[in-house]
Design goal:
Length: 85
């Protein structure tokens, strides 16, 4: 089995009540959703939740997606996923 492709999806989902945090207030939840597809038809899902625009480290929804696409996904696409050596 090999991971042959991936999709990175940015979501913005309204919440039922406003969330107040030290970094700000928001009425939605931002996530980065990752879908991995194998050559055997299996699909894997993962997510990175994100609240209120950006973290204290300057991380944004777009920066998470960019790191996935440019650095992490090229390392996992192609080789067998259980070959961790």
């Amino acid at each position: 089995m090999k991971i042959e492709r991936a999709e990175v999806l940015l979501t913005k989902v309204p919440v039922t009540r406003t969330h107040k945090m030290a970094s700000g207030t928001t009425s939605y939840q931002e996530n980065v959703v990752l879908k991995l597809f194998t050559d055997e038809g299996e699909v894997g899902l993962g997510e990175a939740p994100h609240m209120v625009g950006f973290s204290g480290a300057g991380e944004t929804q777009q920066s998470v997606a960019s790191v996935l696409k440019e650095y992490l996904l090229p390392q996992v696409l192609g080789p067998p996923p259980l070959n961790i050596a």
